[in-house]
From TrEMBL:
Its EC number is 4.1.99.22. It catalyses: GTP + AH2 + S-adenosyl-L-methionine = (8S)-3',8-cyclo-7,8-dihydroguanosine 5'-triphosphate + 5'-deoxyadenosine + L-methionine + A + H(+). SMART domains: Elp3. Pathway: Cofactor biosynthesis; molybdopterin biosynthesis. It comes from Microbacterium radiodurans. This is GTP 3',8-cyclase. It is an enzyme of class 4 (lyase). Binds 2 [4Fe-4S] clusters. Binds 1 [4Fe-4S] cluster coordinated with 3 cysteines and an exchangeable S-adenosyl-L-methionine and 1 [4Fe-4S] cluster coordinated with 3 cysteines and the GTP-derived substrate. GO terms for biological process: Mo-molybdopterin cofactor biosynthetic process. Belongs to the radical SAM superfamily. MoaA family. [4Fe-4S] cluster 1 binds at C24, C28, C31. PANTHER family: MOLYBDENUM COFACTOR BIOSYNTHESIS PROTEIN 1, MOLYBDOPTERIN COFACTOR SYNTHESIS PROTEIN A. The keyword Ribosomal protein does not apply. Its cofactor is [4Fe-4S] cluster.
């Protein structure tokens, strides 16, 4: 039996975020530059067969959740095949679970096929309900397409459905309660993310980011917030709204990091394994995938790189350390 992926701090890794592309239909300011992005070379992007080979080894080593992300994962024309083949994998704990984080734009077209292929969990990113703000923030006039995607998700019956927003001062911090009400009306859970230093423009400034405390204060003016216990390794802390069935989540990666319970690792679209969103080091699987070797040898090489990556994982992301260095890749090329 393959041993689980345990790091030096006894964290067992069960979640692999798979970035399928660095390309995107939007250009969110906190993620990508407006122009001049250096795209990953097309020939370096992992094929569906290569993703499957890596995922098969990861599942055998105890990965139970594969979250597909990007860039925009729905831009992959083979997205349904990717979901179908991943969903058939088994980990020692049983069948794996396939989740996706998307900007929602192609959901009306593809969601029925994705659900049929085995997609089980969905997060949609939506930072504002105002068309002009959306256009300024994403540099694309596509709010209506995202809203259609949210409706398709609501109709799909995939639950819990989550809507993610990055809280930003002077951009959407006056809209936080309205976003929660919108999510509740669509039977979804709103989650606010503290903005992280991962923008390609390197413009992040801690003093201007909206904190967990400010988010809770804003929401507390409209609802009574009651903490939901039993967070486990989940990045979001949750609160029940007015004692009802709906909850809101906050992902306080900057002011209340949850590194101690982190069970995630990442695979970029060009085959780099990362043990943290913020790591500077990457563990290159591309030469392993392109080497002319027998499948069994490749599987053991993939397993070795997975374990090297986990062995190199640090205790925390250290955003607050004076020596903190922002990763060279923007969020779109890492996979959020
Ligand atoms: N395109 C898809 C989407 O937007 O959902 C998937 C990829 S996107 C990189 C994944 C998530 O990362 C989104 O929810 C986005 O809001 C979040 N994100 C991107 N840059 C961020 C940053 N600098 N700080 C916090 N969250 C960020
Ligand atoms: Fe695209 Fe998602 Fe980045 Fe926005 S956050 S630019 S939708 S990858």
């Amino acid at each position: 039996m393959t041993l689980p992926l345990v790091d030096r701090f006894a964290r067992v890794h069960r979640d692999l975020r798979v970035s399928l592309t660095d390309r995107c239909s939007l250009r969110c300011t906190y993620c990508m530059p407006e122009q001049g992005n250096e795209w990953l070379a097309r020939q370096s992007i992992l094929t569906v067969d290569e993703i499957l080979e890596i995922a098969t080894v990861a599942a055998a080593a105890g990965i139970t959740t594969f979250r597909l992300t990007g860039g925009e994962p729905l831009l992959r024309t083979d997205i349904v095949e990717i979901v179908r083949r991943l969903a058939a994998l088994e980990s020692p704990a049983g069948p794996v679970e396939i989740a996706m984080t998307t900007n929602g734009i192609r959901l009306p077209e593809v969601l029925p096929d994705l659900v049929d292929a085995g997609l089980r969990r969905l997060n949609i990113s939506l930072d504002t309900l105002d068309r002009e703000r959306f256009r300024a923030l994403t540099r694309r006039d596509r709010l209506d397409d995202v809203l259609a995607g949210v409706r398709a998700a609501q109709e799909s019956g995939l639950r819990p459905l989550k809507i993610n927003a990055v809280a930003m001062r002077g951009v959407n911090d006056d809209e936080l309660a309205d976003l929660v009400a919108f999510a509740v009306a669509h039977d979804a859970q709103m989650r606010f993310i503290e903005q992280m230093p991962l923008d390609a423009g390197h413009t992040w400034d801690r003093s201007t980011m909206v904190t967990r405390e400010e988010i809770l204060e804003a929401l507390g003016r409209r609802w009574h917030l009651e903490p939901v216990p039993g967070r486990g390794g989940a990045p979001a802390e949750r609160w029940r709204l007015d004692g009802g069935e709906h909850t809101v989540g906050v992902i306080a990666s900057v002011t209340a990091p949850f590194c101690g319970a982190c069970d995630r690792m990442r695979l970029t679209a060009d085959g780099q394994l990362r043990n943290c969103l913020f790591s500077i080091d990457e563990y290159d699987l591309l030469p392993v995938m392109r080497a002319d070797v027998a499948p069994a040898d490749r599987a053991s090489d993939i397993d070795r790189v997975l374990r090297n990556c986990i062995a190199g994982k640090k205790a925390g992301h250290a955003i607050d350390d004076p020596g903190f260095l922002q990763p060279a890749r923007g969020m779109n090329a890492i996979g959020g």
